[in-house]
Amino acid sequence: MSATTTRPTAPTPDQTASPTGAAATPAGASGASGASGTATLTLAKAITAALHDAMAADEKVLLMGEDIGRLGGVFRVTDGLQATFGEDRVVDTPLAEATILGAAIGLALRGYRPVCEIQFDGFVYPAFSQIVSQLAKMPARLAGAGQLPVVVRIPYGGGIGAVEHHSESPEAYFAHTAGLRVISPATPQDAYWMLRQSLTQPDPVIVMEPKRRYWDKGAVDTSAAALAAAPGLHSARVARPVSDARVSEGGAVTVVAYGPTVRVALDAALAAAEEGVELEVVDLRSLSPLDVGVVEASARRTGRVVVVHEAPVFLGMGAEVAARVTESCFHSLEAPVLRVGGFSVPYPAARIEEHYLPDAERLLDAVDRVLA
Amino acid sequence: MPLVAPAPQAPVQLLSPTGVRRSRPTGEREYPDVEEYAALVADVGAEQLRARYRDMALVRRFDVEATALQRQGELALWASCTGQEAAQVGAGHGLAGQDHVFPTYREHGLAWVRGVDPLQVLQLYRGSSHGGWDPSDHAFHLYTLVIGAQLPHATGYAMGVQRDGLVGTGDRGRDTAVMACFGDGASSQGEVNEALSWAAVFSAPVVFFCQNNGWAISAPTARQSAAPLHQRATGFGMPGVQVDGNDVLAVEAVVRAAGDRARSGAGPVLVEAVTYRMNAHTTSDDAGRYRTREEEDSWRAKDPLARVEAHLRATDGADDAFFDAVRGESDELGARVRRGVREMTDPAPTSMFDHAYAAEHPLVASERAWLETWLATEPEEAR
Ligand SMILES: Cc1ncc(C[n+]2csc(CCOP(=O)(O)OP(=O)(O)O)c2C)c(N)n1
Q1: Sign of the CA dihedral B324, B326, B332, B333?
Q2: Which of A109, A140, B222, B267 would suit a FRET pair with B5, their CA atoms being 20 to 30 Å apart?
């Protein structure tokens, strides 16, 4: 089975200057003024719209991060927001991740809803102690006497040809830490409502933003009705269903993905379909909590599961999914759950990252193995 | 009594923007120690200044070439050092050969003075290596991309130097200092402040060399520090000096002084070189979004190369023939760099496993074996 493997072609951050044109006001802005509707947005601009609309709806929402003001962030996700909401609500911080998070905790204790932007995945570690020792644990210590609704946005993952520390997948560290919710939207529509929900619920949320999908476009409905109809923040979705009829014919496999690898799984599904194999693609959306119900239902139908992510396979999200499926669906399984992902090495130099990143080809190889 | 902040002093300057060399104070706001600093570089005559000029010109040419190579898709990214040549070349010449440098990611001028080949530097920015050179070859450690992370390393290294008895022996050829480079933006990081504190507490032989180039991507220095950066030194318990970072002579003098102090065992020094990043932060950045043309022009008038050229010409220290020769050499360097980058081969895919661990690691070994098999069996058209 084969799919065309191409070198990553996603634009580098310099091309983010105006991914959807020079519009200073995101299309989603309309959602705030009441005249809402559907627009075609990139994933990055869907986040811009969500931030805009959340800020318009709740004056306690404020953004903090490096270069997020006049520059609009290195990925231009906050583009135009400082012009709209002012320097007090879109705060260009000193270059200090630990205090971006620590100050966010203080602001949250004071009733604010800070959204922290971490510039790149590899730069979250100076803030790691604040996130895992303070943000995650303080709500439990407060025992109901306070909440910490802090949202941390982290562009993550590889495939954009970047230099060291700009392509990492640290999601498992956060998902492993009790007290944090961890999400990773894969589509512009999901990015919109998941961020809006993150900004109205009471817990800390780590938003893993798949940076190589920032420029992917999709329809985004920013209406209040769409928001009200959205599923809960913890819900997985079946991104590509397989009919019962096809399942009973055999040759169906569940592929579990999230964030940047949802696209990989969908590409693999197209290639597989040409060869008579149907892939049911489950997009986890939430990494903690994990919506095991959706995964299990699919696993029971197909009897075969492959999990794919960019992070190293060892102790990654795939290990948790595989264990859960094995525990609860053992008798429905036709083959062991397989994992496809990164290697147990530091994320390699860009010139060879294509050999590190799990692509459709590698995923299809695992599909072949669960079918064998 | 009202609380007042100390009045700022003018940075040490030995070569004015118009190329006038100073050896004693000339005005009221003049840095008081100018005579002492001038005396420290009394040995830097026309010949040495020509060499400094040549270094700066070649570094600038290298920088221009790298920017072009990024535009042509040969490099993933480039962090330009144009405008900061005097700070870096001056610092490089201010150090002793046995000193060690812990750079950030923009120290191309220091790398050059230390003898690191420009093509080695480019490997990181091309995306073919995460390192590019052996630090022990030139006592020049690897570039560091995580802001400020190298300052604790430099401090620990200096503590090692101290333990090895290479501080305060009075042997100028042996006593060793460690230079830790960082930016004004980095001064906000906790680790940077922790390192300053440690070095002072342990009297570690560190020269903290801050190139304050005005900006940390889009944030001006004022967004990083409410006090002049060199003044922070006092609070940590070490001397702090501000120097005109576009004056190669002054930087060399100040770094010599700081290095002497560190090597003598008297402890660390914080040097703040005030300079300017003439280009955008990196080739991925758009400086037009956050700063003005007027600001850039005002700094263009303080160009570090122009003032050395003006001085050399005015004092008959160099003529057209010299500057033509440097230009010719620059062209050769540019061509060599261009050719070298184009000829760079990508590392083998399995090289990612080579040094993840120094000793045998079964998981890595099995993953390597898997990738080797995969690459050998993958259909040709898929690659
Ligand atoms: C911990 C960390 N956070 C964020 C970044 C992204 N980043 C790279 S360079 C930079 C600005 C650095 O400014 P400064 O220290 O003044 O050095 P300069 O680039 O101006 O030489 C930022 C925010 C990073 N590399 N590391």
Answers
A1: negative
A2: B267
**Phi, psi of A257, rounded to the nearest 5 degrees:** -140, 175
Q: Give, in order, the Cα–Cα distances in Å from A229 to each of A38, A201, A203, A221, B377.
A: 14, 16, 21, 11, 48
Q: Is B231 exposed, middle or buried (0-12, 13-18, 19+ CB in 10 A)?
A: middle
Q: Which two tokens stand for residue A206?
A: 């780590």
CB-based contact, A343 to chain B, within 8 Å: yes
Distances (CA, A) of B100 to B189, B216, B337: 22, 25, 26
Q: Do B127 and A71 touch (CB under 8 A)?
A: no
CB burial of A158-193 (b: ≥16 within 10 Å; e: otherwise) equals bbbbbbbbbbbbbbbbbbebebbbbbbbbbbbbbbb
pLDDT at B183 over 70: yes
CA distances from B318 to B48, B256, B325 (A): 11, 25, 11
Q: Which tokens is B356 given?
A: 């993840």
Residue A29 has pLDDT above 50, yes or no: no
Could you report the predicted ipTM of this complex, rounded to two decimals? Answer: 0.93
Distance CA B188, CA A107 (A): 20
pLDDT digits (tens, 9 = 90+) for B271-314: 999 999 999 999 999 999 999 999 999 999 999 999 999 999 99
Q: How many angstroms does the Cα of residue A324 sit away from the middle of ligand 1?
A: 41
> In chain B, what residues touch A3 (CB-CB under 8 Å)?
382
Write the single-letter amino acid at B317.
G
Residues with Cβ within 8 Å of residue B11, at least 6 apart in sequence: B31, B242, B243, B244, B245, B250, B272, B274
